[in-house]
Specification:
Low-confidence stretches: 363-396
Shape: globular
Strand order of the largest sheet: 2-8-7-6-5-3-4-13
Largest sheet: 8 strands, mixed
Number of helices: 12
Order of helices and strands: HEHEHEHEHEHEEHEHHEHEEEHHE
Structural class: alpha/beta
Bound molecules: pyridoxal-5'-phosphate
Radius of gyration: 21 Å
Distance between the termini: 48 Å
Length: 396
């Protein structure tokens, strides 16, 4: 690779003219963001203070709260990581227990380690026909809560990286029976509030939700929100955010959240409806070419392809897409994940379609049997790697 430091490398990358199917959701296409660059101010009397907001930040948080129908919404300029940390500190006792699905972000694992919290993990199950992970099992959550009367919270990551959505409505009912708060890491699902019906976890009954706005919405990288159902927790939540947050939050990021909120009011529902139509077309095309896509309840804007069924690795597929100037979000041994947003252009989608069509023409060795075998292998051999020193994980 030719040596270039950060600024130059970004300029070089931009020149390639790739279609972005990864975060951030603005795709460098949200025109108003260009005007932001000369507004990099700090916390001043006129600009407000993130952790003691009295003016502009307070109004923006109130606007977010109205849009997302929360008791209060707290802005983060250092990602959803900060929201996850604050949410767990706010609701969970130091040294306590939390019920969670095994696929959680390292921000949650690290904070549990720091607060000496023991995660009680749900079993990770795989759909045997597609190899994608299944959503958490409500009966299992209830069984754990019945057996463990000292649980501080249920902490669910939904949607997962592959767009699979948990049954938050039912999990919330179970949590209410056992009087345990339901916390949701909705890093990948901020936009679900603009689906019809609204699929945002807060609307479906969660007590607190962490949204990584920049992943799927037109917000600068680092923009996120912690939503609380109960406004009375606001002061304590601000202290938890301050505890982990930077003392120099970026006003560019916060302003991009503000601009995004206005866009959501006027265009959120209609733009996500259009996007869903486009991604459904892509999924139909992919399936017609023998690519396996997830089947269960999911965010249909998240494109996930299991390409083992056509004899490819995720890396082969990602490299092939790049030839068509399509940059995916992620690949693994068998999967490729793409994150489209309403800011992807017609040209972006045409390139992706061409990439899919040519991918299958060159490699038409459809093989669902091997997919199924792989699913069985995965569910038998599953090993989840947590960072060293992570607290004891209680399996039931
Ligand atoms: C499930 C999940 N939670 C939280 C985070 C952290 O979000 P951020 O990058 O905004 O700090 C991520 C980031 O990838 C994630 O995938």
């Amino acid at each position: 690779m030719k040596k270039a430091c950060v600024y130059k490398s970004l300029l070089n990358y931009r020149k390639k003219g790739m279609s972005s199917f990864h975060t951030p959701g603005h795709k460098n296409n949200f025109l108003k963001l260009k005007k932001l660059i000369n507004l990099d101010y700090t916390e001043l009397k006129d600009t407000d203070n993130l952790y003691e907001p009295l003016g502009p930040i307070k109004y923006t948080e109130e606007k977010a709260s109205k849009i997302f129908r929360s008791g209060h919404s707290l802005i983060s300029a250092t990602g959803c990581t900060l929201c996850v940390q604050a949410m767990i500190k706010l609701f969970c006792k130091n040294g306590g227990k939390v019920v969670c699905n095994r696929m959680m972000h390292k921000s949650a694992v690290n904070i549990m380690q720091l607060l000496n919290i023991t995660p009680i993990c749900l079993k990770l199950k795989v759909d045997k026909t597609t190899n994608f992970y299944l959503p958490p099992d409500c009966n299992e959550i209830e069984h754990i809560l019945k057996k463990n009367k000292d649980v501080s919270a249920v902490y669910i990551t939904s949607p997962d990286y592959y767009g699979t959505i948990a049954d938050i409505g039912n999990i919330s009912k179970i949590c209410k029976i056992y009087n345990v708060p339901l916390l949701v890491d909705n890093a990948h699902g901020s936009h679900l509030a603009f689906f019809k019906p609204n699929l945002h976890p807060l609307t479906l009954g969660a007590d607190a939700v962490a949204d990584s706005l920049h992943k799927t919405l037109p917000v600068l990288t680092g923009g996120a929100i912690l939503h609380l159902k109960d406004k009375r927790l606001l002061e304590k939540a601000k202290r938890c955010m301050e505890f982990f947050g930077s003392s120099s939050p970026s006003f560019l990021i916060m302003a991009s959240i503000d601009i995004c909120l206005d866009w959501l009011i006027n265009h959120g529902e209609s733009e996500f409806l259009k996007l869903r139509k486009k991604t459904n077309e892509i999924n139909i095309l992919a399936k017609s070419r023998g690519i396996v896509v997830p089947l269960h309840t999911r965010d249909d804007t998240r494109l996930c392809f299991n390409v083992k069924s056509i004899g490819l690795t995720g890396e082969d597929c990602a490299n092939h897409f790049r030839k068509y100037k399509v940059e995916p979000e992620f690949f693994s041994e068998d999967f490729v994940v793409l994150i489209p947003s309403p800011f992807n252009t017609k040209k972006d989608f045409s390139r992706l379609k061409e990439g899919i069509k040519t991918l299958c023409k060159k490699n038409s060795v459809s093989n669902t049997a091997s997919t199924r075998n792989y699913a069985e292998k995965l569910s038998n051999d599953l090993v989840i790697n947590y960072p060293p020193g992570v607290p004891r994980i209680l399996d039931i």
